[in-house]
Structure formats: C-alpha cells, structure tokens
Amino acid sequence: MGRTAQQPSTLLVMRFSAMGDVAMTVPVIVQLLQHYPALQVVMVSDKKWAPLFENIPRLTFYPADLRGLHKGFFGLRELYRSLRSFRISAVADLHRVLRSRVMDLFFSVGGYKVSVLDKGRPEKRRLTRKRGKVLQPLRATVQRYADVFAALGFPFPLREDVAPLRPPVLRPELAAKLPEKGTRRWVGIAPFARHPEKTYPPEKMQEIVGSLALREDLQLLLFGGGSAEVQRLEEWAARYPGVCSTAGKYSLEDELAIIGRLSLMISMDSANMHLAALFGVPVISIWGATHPYAGFRAFGQPEENRVQIALYCRPCSVFGNVPCYRGDHACMEQLPPALVLQRVNAVLDGNVS
C-alpha cells in the first residue's frame, strides 16, 4: 500500500547521464507528484538539464556540477552534505552507476532508505546477443523508474495517455527569429544521434526533407548540435524552401518552447524523441541498431509510429554504442525513405491506423 496523502515526505531523486535518459524521468515524477499531493521531490541531475524540470509543482531542482564542484569521491561527498539540508525522507536512484552508487552509500550510512533502479541487464543481454536472441518487449524504462518509487512506499499506476508537460512560453524575441507559422504546421526533424548505428544515412534523410518540403502546408524545423551537424542542416535549409535550421542557435529552454509547438517530430532513437513526447507531440521514430523492446521508446507514443525493419541481427545493442558487426549497417541502409514518408504522411493527414 502507498502512503496516505496526509503524510508529508521529501524524496531525493537522482538521474545523471544523457538528456534523453533524464527526460524520461519527467513523466514519471509528474505523475508521482500528482498521485501524492503531500509529496515533495528534490531532483538532482546535471545542471544543463534544469529546464526540463521548470514549473513542476513541488519539485526542486538541484544542479549537480559533476565536472567541477561535485567531481570525484570528495565532490560527491560535498554534494551529499548539501542535499541533507532538504530534510530528505528517502532516496530514489534512477541511474545505478558508479556516481549514484557512491551517493547511495553516503545516504545509506546516514540512515536513509534508498531504492535503486533495476536495469534488467540479463534480459537485455538476451535481447541483444548475436545467437539465440530473445526478441520480446522488456519492461519500459519509465515503468522501471516507477518501480523504484513503489519500493519506497509510493506505488501508482503509470498512465501514458496524458502529456506530462505544457510547452514553455515562446518568448517574443524567440518568436521573431522563427518562421511565421500562419496556416503551416511545424514539423521537426532531428536526423542525428550520438552513435552512428542509431543515425539514418544523411542522404536518405535528405530525401525525406526534400519530399516534405514540397508540401505547402508544412514548415520544417531542423534540430541538431555540433559543428558538423549545424553545417549540414544549414545546407539543407538553404537548398529547400520552407525549411529552417534551429541547430546551434537556441538554449535548451527555447528549444523546448519550439518543440512543444510542433505538429510532428521525426527523430532517431535520441533525446529529441523524448523531448517531443513530454508535450504530447506525435513522434515518428526511426530505429536501427537499437530496438523499442529494450525499453527506451518514447513515452505515450503508439507502436505504429516506430519505423524499423526486421533483421535477424536487430537489436545488436541497447544504446547503439556497439559497432555493426556485419559492417554494412543494414538496419538503416535497407530502410527505405518511402517507409518513413508513408508513416509521416499518414499521421499528418489523419490516416492513422
């Protein structure tokens, strides 16, 4: 049984790592707080991800400076000492890596109850191994997060039919820099990922951009980061009408304001997929070396919007950080742009199954 709403408590929640992983904590924490009105949450993560948690009632974001003040064992000890001032009732470790386990140790020795994420590594190894692959859906990462809170005495039914957040305000200065929306619908395209095995071939994605640019009812907004990505997206924006690149131009808070107003996001298995899902934006996700079965699918998105092809070797890794052992990246190279466009046009034109 969960605690009653009359019992005030403060939970410390830890999740460091990449933006997409941190973004997946948001819908879980939002619903946790909605289910327990007397609960407070202190969210500890990399200071870069603070905009993801703005305007969530009863949530305090505490920035971890893991490359500076809080680096290494003694830095983490300083972080622990600072966090004790929040009168924490229990600790939810949603990461389970060396940094967070050191913090778990500090809190456990200090007398705090600690619950740690079960990453499901054995079943993920069976899913990704070369031979005898067990291709079946595993527990979603968001549900694994919810399990951590349940172990602390805060169970709740996680719903995926409601958008976790409202988009941030679109500042007038930002709106002035963006294409006028008018009657056009904004479609975001995020064609890159951290690892090559999760990235659709640029020439194939350019074909998709060129085809959608022919539609007069759409304004395409390109998302990316890093100098090479910025350059390529600027080239696409210059080549096709109705295409604008946002890459490298705006803060995360401004990007969230833009993403929250999209009619559709086309993304790899990457952070932008998760960011769009926070606002209930339909997401067409493209999958290669990784697979939605590993549990990192976008929150609240239907299965039919995950574009992929069936291959005996998929998935070959959980995170896409393992080089293609075939050497031909067939999972992406054999995925035709027409398959992506078919789903995109079905969603945009309301012909969804």
Short overview:
This is Glycosyltransferase family 9 protein. This protein has 353 residues and is an alpha/beta fold.
Structure notes:
Pfam families: Glyco_transf_9 (PF01075). Keywords: Glycosyltransferase, Transferase. This is Glycosyltransferase family 9 protein. This protein has helices at 19-23, 25-35, 72-83, 98-109, 121-128, 141-151, 172-177, 202-213, 227-239, 252-259, 271-278, 330-333, 337-348; strands at 9-14, 39-46, 59-64, 90-93, 113-116, 185-190, 218-222, 243-245, 264-268, 283-286, 306-307. The longest helix has 13 residues, at 227-239. It is α/β, with parallel strands linked by helices and 353 residues long. It starts with 8 loop residues before the first strand and ends in a 5-residue tail after the last helix. It contains 13 helices and eleven strands. It folds into two domains: 9-151, Glycogen Phosphorylase B (Rossmann fold), CATH 3.40.50.2000; 175-348, 3-Layer(aba) Sandwich (Rossmann fold), CATH 3.40.50.2000. Residues 1-6 have low confidence and may be disordered.
